């Protein structure tokens, strides 16, 4: 057993030495609980967007900024950073906490990801379809897993769907409008009403007649070929939910094709994409689509063919 | 959809001392991806003709000799090989003291008739500074770097400064600093501007007409001007007899300075300038003082792309904006000229906004067409929310209702920044067939601006020139 006095002596010596001077570190380490971190979290100034959804966040105590001349520099830097942030919807300049993203950033990311997943697996609001007077048919897809695994099933109407379309729809219209959830039911929920009504108004103004519109559950883009085969319209316009991403899970596309039939190649299709509140406004897209359809009818071609004919 | 469209643009700069013309070719292209709605932008500008620098023809001290200016322009059009009818856009800029000379406004009207069916803009000093900064390359430089760039355009009568960062205008300022504020003839003073007279009185300088020139006094006067420029750039300026209008309003420190205008030519190319002896005025002295200023030496200096021709180049290549490609216009109504802008700001409370429209239109009418002579005005929808189909129709119906309530029989002209013009225009067109409609988007204007809207191009967009018609001095009214 060591002498108690000796222990105290050694302890005091050690403490004194430690106080004298800190050993110089060879590598600069960031100490996560250091009160005055030498790094600065870029984008501290960025206003944190409220994370959507139901998760409630308790406010975090704000860290004091170091009261040195660096403050001004930080503000200037963040001014430049803001310019960069404006140019992209990517998650840049969001700061960090140690090696991880900040909690808010992380939750926002998780929320957006979850929204994307929900959009793929969700169902379109039935009352919306009712209001717009769209009846529903199915593709050969029976459940969502099959939809993901067998894209070819999403490209054909089911037998009863085909029959229903034959019975209920006017044949050989100039324009056949169809709607499908595709990969985002949310896109349909959010944008369909405005795009659809605006498109109809624009076609009416141009004096272009339309057929009997309907909704296709779990369809893929090329399902328009099957519809073209059955109803033989001049132009099919398919309003379909786009594959969701982390920026928007509710983006819609309008696919247009001149006389699509089974076997139509992709280059003959034409698309107006990015229709959502953060992209092309839905009502404006609808108004614009009318003039695109007019052009397709005028030239009797769509997609690459149309570009060629236009010269 | 795929190709490039080319339009011809004219820039005419009628300054206090010199007049220049440039003709340029603007190329327009769809810059949006194939799967997006088209977005037409000016992708290239190429100057195809530059006139020599002419003395601005004046009649006496106060008025521009219009007949001579018109001759000059038609001669230069011939030299360039263009007909007035070929010009689709562009701007006439009446700058500096010329703008305050008595017949500037009349001039604008006459030129718009003679120089082609193109758009005519006139400059107040703010717009002039902005246009010069675009022509000199200061604006482009600010977009490329993260530096704050000031362009100081020193012409005959005024120095117009515009400050840019990241391509955003931070502010403008105008000073009575220019080459022709003191003029000589055969070694004696032949003209001094009122602002100089005031300074002369303060400092007891003898600058009476007919007095022989004193180098010392000129240097002192140029020194005063240099101080005004420095004070303006550093934000330390308060009251000064040389300040016109507002003191500088930007808060950022300026990193880079550039000079353009006639005096700038003498700042950067000293030899060139002295040889010519073109300017019999204080310009060369001022250039010398500015060049050797230790205070100005504290800023980073950059040589501009253009000095004397910065404004005319800016006018010819940078004043035209292109509307969105999805718009609704009645072609018979276009072109429109000198349309005042009344701004309606949406508050976010839809019902309230719809109610407020009534009052707003009544006021706009009182302001822009009090005698009901059929003077059109444009409504600018600021902060317009993202509207759905039904709200768009409601807005259209409301506008139509109010236009008929007040018996407004001029075209309904709507401008907005948000991409909603086609849907609103279409709704109006279908539901109110009797109305003449011009509804354009992706254009940003402000209350009190004036706009010119040209006829649609093949790519279905319309060129728009936004201008500020503030003539300084007020004596021309």
From TrEMBL, chain A:
Keywords: Bacterial microcompartment, Cobalamin, Cobalt, Lyase. Catalyzes the deamination of various vicinal amino-alcohols to oxo compounds. Allows this organism to utilize ethanolamine as the sole source of nitrogen and carbon in the presence of external vitamin B12. Its EC number is 4.3.1.7. The basic unit is a heterodimer which dimerizes to form tetramers. The heterotetramers trimerize; 6 large subunits form a core ring with 6 small subunits projecting outwards. This is Ethanolamine ammonia-lyase small subunit. Residues 37-84 are annotated as: Disordered. It is found in: Bacterial microcompartment. It comes from the Bacteria. Adenosylcob(III)alamin binds at residues 221, 242. The keyword Metal-binding does not apply. Its cofactor is adenosylcob(III)alamin. Pathway: Amine and polyamine degradation; ethanolamine degradation. The keyword Lyase applies. It catalyses: ethanolamine = acetaldehyde + NH4(+). Belongs to the EutC family. It is an enzyme of class 4 (lyase). Residues 62-72 have a biased composition (Basic and acidic residues). Binds between the large and small subunits.
From TrEMBL, chain B:
It comes from the Bacteria. Coiled coil: none annotated. InterPro entries: ATPase_NBD (IPR043129), EutA (IPR009377), FtsA/MreB (IPR050696). It holds the Pfam family EutA. PANTHER family: CELL DIVISION PROTEIN FTSA-RELATED, ETHANOLAMINE AMMONIA-LYASE REACTIVASE EUTA. This is Ethanolamine utilization protein EutA.
């Amino acid at each position: 057993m060591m002498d108690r006095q000796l222990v105290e002596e050694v302890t005091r010596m050690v403490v004194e030495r430690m106080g004298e001077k800190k050993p110089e570190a060879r590598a600069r380490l960031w100490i996560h609980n250091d009160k005055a971190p030498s790094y600065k979290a870029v984008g501290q100034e960025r206003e944190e967007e409220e994370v959507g959804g139901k998760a409630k966040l308790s406010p975090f105590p704000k860290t004091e900024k170091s009261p040195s001349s660096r403050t001004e520099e930080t503000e200037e830097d963040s001014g430049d950073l803001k310019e960069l942030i404006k140019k992209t919807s990517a998650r840049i300049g969001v700061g960090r906490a140690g090696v991880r993203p900040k909690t808010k950033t992380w939750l926002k990311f998780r929320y957006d990801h979850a929204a994307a997943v929900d959009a793929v697996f969700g169902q379109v609001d039935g009352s919306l379809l009712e209001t717009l007077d769209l009846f529903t048919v199915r593709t050969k897809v029976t459940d969502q897993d099959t939809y993901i695994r067998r894209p070819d099933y999403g490209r054909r109407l089911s037998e009863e769907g085909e029959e229903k379309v034959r019975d209920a729809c006017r044949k050989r219209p100039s324009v056949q409008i169809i709607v499908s959830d595709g990969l985002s039911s949310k896109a349909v929920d959010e944008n369909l009403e405005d795009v659809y009504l605006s498109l109809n108004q624009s076609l009416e103004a141009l004096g272009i007649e339309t057929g009997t519109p309907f909704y296709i559950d779990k369809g893929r883009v090329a399902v328009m070929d099957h519809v073209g085969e059955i109803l033989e319209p001049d132009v099919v316009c398919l309003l379909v939910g786009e594959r969701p991403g982390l920026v928007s899970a509710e983006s819609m596309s309008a696919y247009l094709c001149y006389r699509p039939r089974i076997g139509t190649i992709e280059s003959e299709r034409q698309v107006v994409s990015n229709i959502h509140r953060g992209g092309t406004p839905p009502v404006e897209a609808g108004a614009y689509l009318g003039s695109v359809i007019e052009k397709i009818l005028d030239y009797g071609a769509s997609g690459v063919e149309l570009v060629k004919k236009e010269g | 959809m795929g190709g490039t469209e080319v339009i011809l643009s004219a820039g005419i700069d009628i300054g206090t001392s010199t007049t220049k013309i440039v003709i340029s070719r603007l190329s327009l292209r769809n810059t949006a991806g194939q799967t997006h709605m088209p977005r037409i932008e000016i992708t290239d500008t190429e100057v195809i003709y530059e006139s020599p620098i002419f003395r601005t023809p004046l009649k006496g001290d106060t008025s521009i000799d219009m007949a001579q200016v018109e001759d000059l322009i038609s001669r230069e059009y011939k030299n360039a090989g263009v007909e007035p009818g070929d010009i689709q856009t562009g701007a006439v800029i009446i700058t500096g003291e010329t703008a305050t000379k008595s017949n500037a406004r009349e001039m604008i009207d006459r030129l718009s008739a003679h120089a082609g069916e193109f758009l005519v803009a006139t400059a107040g000093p703010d717009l002039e500074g902005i246009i010069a900064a675009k022509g000199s390359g200061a604006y482009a430089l600010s977009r490329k770097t993260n530096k704050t760039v000031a362009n100081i355009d020193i012409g005959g009568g005024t120095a117009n400064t515009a400050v840019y960062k990241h391509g955003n205008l931070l502010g403008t300022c105008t000073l009575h600093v220019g080459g022709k504020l003191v003029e000589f003839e055969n070694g004696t003073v032949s003209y001094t501007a009122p602002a100089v007279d005031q300074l002369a009185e303060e400092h007891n300088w003898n600058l009476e007409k007919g007095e022989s020139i004193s180098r010392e006094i000129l240097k002192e006067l140029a020194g005063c001007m240099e101080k005004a420029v420095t004070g303006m750039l550093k934000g330390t300026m308060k009251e000064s007899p040389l300040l016109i209008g507002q003191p500088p309003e930007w808060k950022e420190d300026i990193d880079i300075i550039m000079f353009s205008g006639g005096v700038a030519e003498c700042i950067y190319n000293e030899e060139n300038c002295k040889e010519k002896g073109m300017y019999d005025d204080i310009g060369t002295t001022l250039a010398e003082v500015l060049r050797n200023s230790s205070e100005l030496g504290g800023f980073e200096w950059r040589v501009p792309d253009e000095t004397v021709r910065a404004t005319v180049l800016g006018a010819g290549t940078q004043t035209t904006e292109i509307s969105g490609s999805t718009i609704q216009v009645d072609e018979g109504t276009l072109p429109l000229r000198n349309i005042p802008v009344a701004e309606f700001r949406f508050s976010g409370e839809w019902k309230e906004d719809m109610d407020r429209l009534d009052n707003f239109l009544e006021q706009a009418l009182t302001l822009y067409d009090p005698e009901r002579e059929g003077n059109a005005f444009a409504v600018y929808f600021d902060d317009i929310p993202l509207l759905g189909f039904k709200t768009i129709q409601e807005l259209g119906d409301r506008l139509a209702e109010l236009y008929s309530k007040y018996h407004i029989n001029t075209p309904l002209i709507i401008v907005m920044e948000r991409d909603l013009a086609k849907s609103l225009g279409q709704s109006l067109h279908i539901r109110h067939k009797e109305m003449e409609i011009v509804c354009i988007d992706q254009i940003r204007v402000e209350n009190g601006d004036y706009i010119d809207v040209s006829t649609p191009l093949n790519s279905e967009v319309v060129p728009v020139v936004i201008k500020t018609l503030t003539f300084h001095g007020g004596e021309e009214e």
